[in-house]
Amino acid sequence: MKNVISISVGEVALKKGKRNFFEKKLLGKIKAATRDLGSPNVYRELGKMYVEVNEDNIDKVINRVKKVFGLVHLSPAYKIEKNLDSIKVNSLKALKEAIKKRKIRTFKVDCKRADKKFPVNSMEVAREVGAYILQNTEDLKVDIHNPDIYVYVDIRQKVYIYTEKIYGYGGLPLGTNGKGLLLLSGGIDSPVAGFMIAKRGVSIEAVHYHSYPFTSERAEEKVKDLAKIISMYTGEIKLYSVNILNIQKAINKYCPPSEMTIISRRFMTKIAESIANINNIDCIITGENLGQVASQTMKSLNVTNSSVNIPILRPLIGFNKTEIIEIAKDIETFETSILPFEDCCSVFLPKHPVTSPELRDIEESEKVLDVEGLIEDAINKMKITTISI
Ligand SMILES: Nc1ncnc2c1ncn2[C@@H]1O[C@H](COP(=O)(O)OP(=O)(O)OP(=O)(O)O)[C@@H](O)[C@H]1O
């Protein structure tokens, strides 16, 4: 029975002086992700990590662990005694198990010996195990260049045998790179943007703007559902819900209609900056993408940037929509994102939004508004929810 998950770390292992710090963080994240699945024993050994499991919940544990950022791949493995007989028997067993699931004609034994005290070198182990498998199977051949399957033998303090590599997302453990505030709409792009930045080790909080009662409660529920899916990767998310209807009404009343979108966007960004400053958050994250809509031309993005001092990260800036959708499907936000919803941005949508705004014109238009007062009022009334799976 497979009794352990063997985990290969990625960039974490390259962090020379800080490797121990990153590995400890990653270990903690793996523990946290599996705590409610019986708190399996999680340990590290010579640059790899292991989760001890029983066969009953191995799939559940794998599904959780593969969403932890910082690991490259994981393998359900046999953890066995360190002797050649045991290695042979269990390698054959692992291969036979794989044969039950798919057609396999060729194999290769790939042995690594981190424990140099083990008396047989890795080439010799591979040769002995290969010969044993050939003696005990029919119709199988060795192919060292392009085998249907690899039998991995990893000799460490114990020996680990596996045949499968399940790919994780790589990146860095959460919390090793500060905290970001994700501007989370109900659309396809912003959840992907949050995922991309979280993958680089940034903890995530989220803000959603709505225009209730012009937008529905259902639209807000949808955003919570999206935050819940993102929390599968990031752990618990603090969600700030901010009603900007009064702000939109004021812009609608006093500013040129074509500037509605860009001025609203500047308000959203300023509110996000205030929330970030209050909560020790280092950056804002948006799903903006160059040229997608009027507020996402280079000029519009610059005018938005000028409203704040905090860095704005836009990880999707150069992506095509099809590429964004591919990631959205992979991280399981797509199906929820495409459900119909009303976004606050479409409540006072101008017919002809300005696409080349000049900062001085926009600042001039904003002079008639009580910008500080409107922001303060919106923040005072915002609701905070903690979202987790
Ligand atoms: N109601 C909202 N609440 C919070 N953030 C928002 C909201 N609307 C837009 N944003 C932020 O602004 C970005 C650009 O939004 P916009 O509607 O212009 O484009 P989009 O490509 O449709 O984005 P998305 O697919 O994420 O909704 C979003 O990705 C999101 O980060």
From TrEMBL:
<dbReference type="GO" id="GO:0009229">
    <property type="term" value="P:thiamine diphosphate biosynthetic process"/>
</dbReference>
<feature type="binding site">
    <location>
        <position position="265"/>
    </location>
    <ligand>
        <name>ATP</name>
    </ligand>
</feature>
<dbReference type="GO" id="GO:0009228">
    <property type="term" value="P:thiamine biosynthetic process"/>
</dbReference>
<dbReference type="GO" id="GO:0140741">
    <property type="term" value="F:tRNA-uracil-4 sulfurtransferase activity"/>
</dbReference>
<feature type="binding site">
    <location>
        <position position="287"/>
    </location>
    <ligand>
        <name>ATP</name>
    </ligand>
</feature>
<keyword id="KW-0963">Cytoplasm</keyword>
<dbReference type="InterPro" id="IPR054173">
    <property type="entry name" value="ThiI_fer"/>
</dbReference>
<feature type="binding site">
    <location>
        <begin position="208"/>
        <end position="209"/>
    </location>
    <ligand>
        <name>ATP</name>
    </ligand>
</feature>
<dbReference type="InterPro" id="IPR050102">
    <property type="entry name" value="tRNA_sulfurtransferase_ThiI"/>
</dbReference>
<comment type="pathway">
    <text>Cofactor biosynthesis; thiamine diphosphate biosynthesis.</text>
</comment>
<feature type="binding site">
    <location>
        <begin position="183"/>
        <end position="184"/>
    </location>
    <ligand>
        <name>ATP</name>
    </ligand>
</feature>
<comment type="similarity">
    <text>Belongs to the ThiI family.</text>
</comment>
<dbReference type="InterPro" id="IPR049962">
    <property type="entry name" value="THUMP_ThiI"/>
</dbReference>
<keyword id="KW-0808">Transferase</keyword>
<dbReference type="Pfam" id="PF02926">
    <property type="entry name" value="THUMP"/>
</dbReference>
<dbReference type="GO" id="GO:0000049">
    <property type="term" value="F:tRNA binding"/>
</dbReference>
<dbReference type="GO" id="GO:0005524">
    <property type="term" value="F:ATP binding"/>
</dbReference>
<dbReference type="InterPro" id="IPR020536">
    <property type="entry name" value="ThiI_AANH"/>
</dbReference>
<keyword id="KW-0694">RNA-binding</keyword>
<dbReference type="GO" id="GO:0005829">
    <property type="term" value="C:cytosol"/>
</dbReference>
<dbReference type="InterPro" id="IPR004114">
    <property type="entry name" value="THUMP_dom"/>
</dbReference>
<dbReference type="Pfam" id="PF02568">
    <property type="entry name" value="ThiI"/>
</dbReference>
<feature type="domain" description="THUMP">
    <location>
        <begin position="59"/>
        <end position="165"/>
    </location>
</feature>
<dbReference type="InterPro" id="IPR049961">
    <property type="entry name" value="ThiI_N"/>
</dbReference>
<feature type="binding site">
    <location>
        <position position="296"/>
    </location>
    <ligand>
        <name>ATP</name>
    </ligand>
</feature>
<dbReference type="GO" id="GO:0052837">
    <property type="term" value="P:thiazole biosynthetic process"/>
</dbReference>
<dbReference type="GO" id="GO:0004810">
    <property type="term" value="F:CCA tRNA nucleotidyltransferase activity"/>
</dbReference>
<keyword id="KW-0067">ATP-binding</keyword>
<dbReference type="GO" id="GO:0002937">
    <property type="term" value="P:tRNA 4-thiouridine biosynthesis"/>
</dbReference>
<dbReference type="InterPro" id="IPR014729">
    <property type="entry name" value="Rossmann-like_a/b/a_fold"/>
</dbReference>
<keyword id="KW-0547">Nucleotide-binding</keyword>
<protein>
    <recommendedName>
        <fullName>Probable tRNA sulfurtransferase</fullName>
        <ecNumber>2.8.1.4</ecNumber>
    </recommendedName>
</protein>
<dbReference type="Pfam" id="PF22025">
    <property type="entry name" value="ThiI_fer"/>
</dbReference>
<keyword id="KW-0820">tRNA-binding</keyword>
<keyword id="KW-0784">Thiamine biosynthesis</keyword>
<dbReference type="InterPro" id="IPR003720">
    <property type="entry name" value="tRNA_STrfase"/>
</dbReference>
<comment type="function">
    <text>Catalyzes the ATP-dependent transfer of a sulfur to tRNA to produce 4-thiouridine in position 8 of tRNAs, which functions as a near-UV photosensor. Also catalyzes the transfer of sulfur to the sulfur carrier protein ThiS, forming ThiS-thiocarboxylate. This is a step in the synthesis of thiazole, in the thiamine biosynthesis pathway. The sulfur is donated as persulfide by IscS.</text>
</comment>
